[in-house]
Write a structure and sequence with these properties.
Blueprint: E1 24-29, E2 32-37, H1 38-41, H2 48-52, H3 59-64, E3 69-71, E4 76-79, H4 83-89, H5 92-95, H6 106-115, H7 125-152, H8 160-173, H9 179-201, E5 209-210, E6 216-217, H10 220-243, H11 247-252, H12 254-279, H13 282-294, H14 308-319, H15 321-346, H16 357-368, H17 381-399, H18 402-440, H19 443-455
Parallel strand pairs: 1-4
Antiparallel strand pairs: 1-2, 3-4, 5-6
Helix pairs in contact: 7-18, 8-9, 8-10, 9-10, 10-12, 12-13, 14-18, 15-16, 15-17
Length: about 500
Amino acid sequence: YKMAGDSRFPDVDSDGSEKSEEMEIVVNVGGVRQVFYGDNLNQYPETRLAELVNCLSGGYDSIFSLCDDYDPGKREFYFDRDPDAFKCIIDVYYFGEIHMKKGICPICFKNEMEFWKVDLQFLDDCCKAHLSEKKEELEEIARRVQLILDDLGVDASESRWKKCQKCIWKFLEKPESSYPARVIAVLSFLFILISSVVMCVGTIPDLQVVDAEGNRMEHPTLDSIETACIGWFTMEYVLRLISSPNKLHFALSFMNIVDVLAILPFYVSLTLTHLGAKLMELSNVQQAVQALRIMRIARIFKLARHSSGLQTLTYALKRSFKELGLLLMYLAVGIFVFSALGYTMEQSHPETLFKSIPQSFWWAIITMTTVGYGDIYPKTTLGKLNAAISFLCGVIAIALPIHPIINNFVRYYNKQRVLETAAKHELELMELNSAEGKAAGSRSELEDLSRESKEAPFYSSRIKVSHSDTFIHLLSEEKHHRTRLQSCK
């Protein structure tokens, strides 16, 4: 495009002798005047700028349906839109693709493209990825705001059981909702720690007792503490299952499966102890009970429900599967190569510890991972040199993926903090706008709020729509059109 000073539209006679391809379109977007030619704009006839070429023949109604204002003296179309985003969008007429500049909100840029009727397929892939990430963030913010509004609202049409169910769910699942809920969360955390400590202390021989048959077993006091902890875990799980709004999703959730695995061994071992002796030999029952008691270690994973740090670490590991896969591949190749070399080099020594290549795998593993038990070690000079090289390669292979994994952890942790702050910001804006609406006392606003409260009763004391610059469309199904320049905080 080129800047225009006193450009004029050429006069079009009644016979339409002036071709639209030769016309000049003067556009003023947010105070920035630019000139386009019809042949360029008609490459994409469905866009808004291309429609300006033929809108003059339709009169002022056709003109003002496309733009915000029109100056017939200068024949200039005015749009109250973002000029920076517009400079990026018009690249489609010259290069066939669009790139977002840094500093432009992806969601606002998407809205600008929709206004100018330019398809999102012209947006470059790198910018589409940024847009998808921003949309996911807004969806997460909207989900968090919706959950908070659901907790704050009370539906008068709900039955007493539904209200009780919702209160129990908030009480057990949302410690931040009230002081008693925080106390319950702390108690649950303490029970997990106590149960884990009891499981470890119960294996100390000095604290064990001998039964009538001479077998060692846990101290009765520790057994009683274990029973009390299991009773708490069982009651907690049953109450959460009963009060869950989606029981199937609750039952299939990973953390809830961990809860079941932490509780189930106690009841299975109890059943086998009292009933299994009648069906099988006592020694088999004791072995089965001992194997089930080992599964009690699963309860330590229950701490993840109460620790955002463990949840962040889990997410970082999920996002780092590619790096972890590369690490395993490097180690696997190194283990195979250095174990084969070590076996070959050590065959000349009469007291070699490398009996076969598969047996040498163990030496290569503990060497490359810098463990070095010393149960298998080289005795020849070449074997020691091979061991030194494998050690250095192992250090490098382990160090390579550490930085990406740490970056994933920090990025997710910071993202969660930003999303939490953004959700609180949206709620503060809702409260502020609600207070302003009450102070104004507008009849139309009161009617809108009452109508919304009928459609969604839990919004009765909160307005439904956020008016921040980062407007979250997911909180409302209504379409809100803004004529001011779009911006993003």
